[in-house]
Design a protein that fits this description.
Blueprint (H helix, E strand, L loop, with lengths): L1 E4 L4 H6 L9 E4 L9 H12 L4 H10 L6 H10 L4 H8 L2 H17 L6 E3 L2
Parallel strand pairs: 1-2
Antiparallel strand pairs: 1-3
Helix pairs in contact: 2-3, 2-5, 2-6
Length: 121
């Protein structure tokens, strides 16, 4: 299953746990007009992924959408055992921003209009 989602989207948070046990490819689709932090949250997940903890950060972001500001991101990163200095540098890097933008553009090309959008492989 290919899933286009946004970490601030309450519908994503409700739907994605239902995919437990299904092979999932997650693509970032930050809807910044409704969710102004969504691009930064996608970057946080990607930065965690560069240290081998993408899915752990991904799940953490969806599990507690009430605490998504920077201090809570750092707390999550610390809890995952990430190198915080590297996490911050990666989160703000052009490479991570390009990755998130690439996912978003692939969603546009696939006809994604809202989150979550799911495609079967």
């Amino acid at each position: 299953m290919v899933v286009y989602g946004d970490y601030e989207c309450p519908y994503c948070a409700a739907e994605l746990p239902k995919l437990s046990g299904v092979t999932t490819v997650f693509r970032h689709f930050p809807v910044v007009s409704k969710h102004p932090r969504s691009r930064r949250l996608a970057a946080a997940a990607e930065a965690a992924g560069l240290q081998g903890s993408f899915w752990e950060m991904h799940d953490s972001l969806f599990d507690d959408q009430g605490h998504l500001d920077d201090p809570h991101l750092w707390e999550r990163a610390r809890g995952l055992g990430l190198d915080l200095k590297r996490f911050e540098a990666d989160r703000r890097s052009e490479a991570v921003a390009a990755r998130v933008q690439r996912d978003f553009r692939s969603g546009i090309a696939a006809g994604v209009m809202k989150t979550p959008t799911l495609f079967r492989l």
